[in-house]
Amino acid sequence: MRDYWVSKLFFDMQQPQAAEEYRANRDKVLDRYPLKPEMRQAVVSDDVATLAKVVNPYLLRFFYVAIGKPESWFLERISKTAQAKDAVHG
Amino acid sequence: MAELVGAFASSHAPLMARAWESVDPVRLDSIKKTFAEMGRRFREANPDVLVVLTPDHWVNFFINNMPSVCIGVGETHESPPEPWMKGLPFKSPWQGDPGLGLYLAEQAFEKGFEPTLSYHLEMDHGVAIPLWRMGLTSLPRIVPIIVNTVEPPLISVRRCIDWGRFLREAIESYPQKLRVALMATGGLSHSIGEADMGRIDEPFDMECVEHFRSGDIASLVSFLERKVESAGNGAAEVRNWVMAHSAVQGRGFDLIGYHPYPEWYVGCAFATWNFR
After folding, report:
1. What tens-digit pLDDT sequence spans chain B (276 residues)?
2. Which of A54, A68, B170, B248 is 20 to 30 A from B255 (CA-CA)?
3. Number of domains in chain A
């Protein structure tokens, strides 16, 4: 199940001007999206594991490229989502 | 009448634009040769119009409106909006072929398919990178057919077979003397934004190629229905290859090159079909 507004935020951040604004004033941008509190918290805290459950993987990756996170940073966090799954499923 | 003069398949990857030089010189030279051969065969086919079977990487569509199959019927299309595609030699607008596009759409409805239509599409890297790296200096008119391979639920592999058969019949019944080529973009194995991002499944890719080579469409469908999901979300794009393969009745698959380059995250494969 997708979270529409997190997905919309990530989709919109593909525009360079939008991503620039996000980097300069994240809260102002987030205020324009009716995010559920727990989703806003996941975005603010870069909680990749939570976000990966509710947005398309391509959008997730695009978002972190757009806001300037290094690829190694993203790869480290996204790979941990597999470890978390493995831990749950034994 | 129109004539199908070529069928091509090509992987794509954003890093083929953003980090082309990240691959060592020997392997880069190898893939350059593959692209050059693709380009040579493309020029030899000399199409007036290219029907491109391609995914949309969140450029034209979003989850508020996500068509399964969309035919681009516009007079023109925009070149890629991705900021890292600035080096592309093909500037906007790209010429479309609304006559053929609308004919394909009308025939589709006549034959029991229900595509979405668009009069204005942006061609993302999935279309642009293969044409660019093949060394084309100019483009034929383009009729894009966008197939949703990024956001499930996806079109079934079986339905891609139906679409391929339909496209061949429709193209060849178009009452205008026209040389038409097909190009499928995407695949083979790769995983983007998933826990195993960067994993390339070479055994899947090799088996996939063997099924295309065999020409046994039923076994290809069976294989993909069982295995494609395990080869990463990007492997879903092989549906475009299946459409092209079906359009040429599974004949003459010729792998030009396979380049499983982890630097670009993709099991890159390139092929044509010698079906004539």
Report:
1. 999 999 999 999 999 999 999 999 999 999 999 999 999 999 999 999 999 999 999 999 999 999 999 999 999 999 999 999 989 999 999 999 999 999 999 999 999 999 999 999 999 999 999 999 999 999 999 999 999 999 999 999 999 999 999 999 999 999 999 999 999 999 999 999 999 999 999 999 999 999 999 999 999 999 999 999 999 999 999 999 999 999 999 999 999 999 999 999 999 999 999 998
2. B170
3. 1
> Is B197 within 8 Å of A8 when comparing Cβ atoms?
no
Query: Domain range for residue A9?
Result: 4-89
Query: φ and ψ at B141, to 5 degrees?
Result: -65, 145
Q: Pairing state of beta strands B94-95 and B49-54?
A: unpaired
Within 13 Å, how many C-alpha atoms sit on residue B17's CB side? 22
Which are the contacts of B110, defined by CB distance < 8 A and separation ≥ 6? none
Supply the pTM of this predicted model. Answer: 0.96
Architecture of domain B2-273: 3-Layer(aba) Sandwich (3.40)
Distances (CA, A) of A21 to A25, B59, B196: 6, 20, 31
Chosen for mutation from A13, A58, A64 (greatest number of chain B CBs closer than 10 Å) is A58
Is the ipTM beyond the 0.90 threshold? yes
**Would you kindly state where each structural domain of chain B is located, as residue ranges?**
2-273
On whether the CB atoms of residues A67 and A13 are closer than 8 A, the answer is yes
In whole angstroms, what is the distance from residue B84 CA to residue B87 CA? 8
Q: Under an 8 A CB cutoff, do A58 and B150 touch?
A: yes
Which of B62, B83, B195 lies closest to A11 in CB terms? B62
Give the pairing of strands B141-147 and B69-72.
antiparallel
